[in-house]
From TrEMBL:
Coiled-coil spans in chain: 21-66
Organism the protein comes from: Daphnia pulex
Keywords, sorted A to Z: Coiled coil
UniProt name for this protein: Uncharacterized protein
Length: 97
């Protein structure tokens, strides 16, 4: 309340209003600082979550590629086995037993 120089000392009502105004300005400044801090923390959290999401998406793409490659190899192996069975001298009855 050091900035009371604007209020004349002879007018107590004006002085009280000036004090109330300064208190409200101080509360406003404190609330604004708190809001600014929370906004900064929120932005930081959002940036961190966005990076984690990006990393997870990349990991999912890698897993999908590995799975696709695995299924291609399994399919190729299955076709190779079928070709070997078809070309083998074993009778068809033995294959389906």
């Amino acid at each position: 309340m050091e900035s009371l120089s604007a209020a004349p000392r002879s007018d107590p009502l004006q002085m009280r209003k000036q004090i109330e105004l300064e208190m409200l300005q101080q509360k406003f400044a404190e609330k604004q600082a708190k809001i600014d801090k929370q906004a900064k923390e929120l932005q930081s959290t959002m940036a961190k979550n966005a990076q984690e999401l990006k990393d997870d998406e990349i990991e999912c793409q890698k897993i999908e590629a590995e799975a696709a490659e695995y299924f291609v190899r399994v399919g190729d192996g299955f076709h190779q086995v079928l070709e070997q069975v078809e070309n083998s001298p074993v009778s068809q009855e033995v294959m389906y037993v």
